[in-house]
């Protein structure tokens, strides 16, 4: 009977945290998770170390400090490419997976900076007929052409 109340409290806390995370933007939720896990990991590691389990506590503290270091940098990679090395066109549209810049997308489709939506669509269709896996191309080439089309249509 003495375990029921702490278990219910832990369940309520998990539900509250889950609800709070579901209301956040993805980037903010990831940053909050880094802070929470970092602080919690340091505290648990110190507790384990003080209780005589330094074999478990010390690595936990090290991992938690790593999470806190990433949280302090704002989740950015050290020396990461933010895509701002030349002109306004170098901004990334899909930064989560290394995305393609507008300039790269124009090069892939072979269209100029002043290309309209119809010209972009025509270039996409022509190129896709050549690189589609059913026409002897590869999935990777078709995906790259599709990504270039998506980048340019979202940029307009």
TrEMBL record:
<feature type="region of interest" description="Disordered">
    <location>
        <begin position="76"/>
        <end position="101"/>
    </location>
</feature>
<comment type="similarity">
    <text>Belongs to the TIM14 family.</text>
</comment>
<dbReference type="GO" id="GO:0016020">
    <property type="term" value="C:membrane"/>
</dbReference>
<feature type="domain" description="J">
    <location>
        <begin position="104"/>
        <end position="156"/>
    </location>
</feature>
<dbReference type="InterPro" id="IPR036869">
    <property type="entry name" value="J_dom_sf"/>
</dbReference>
<dbReference type="Pfam" id="PF00226">
    <property type="entry name" value="DnaJ"/>
</dbReference>
<keyword id="KW-1133">Transmembrane helix</keyword>
<feature type="transmembrane region" description="Helical">
    <location>
        <begin position="36"/>
        <end position="68"/>
    </location>
</feature>
<keyword id="KW-0472">Membrane</keyword>
<protein>
    <submittedName>
        <fullName>Molecular chaperone DnaJ</fullName>
    </submittedName>
</protein>
<dbReference type="InterPro" id="IPR001623">
    <property type="entry name" value="DnaJ_domain"/>
</dbReference>
<keyword id="KW-0812">Transmembrane</keyword>
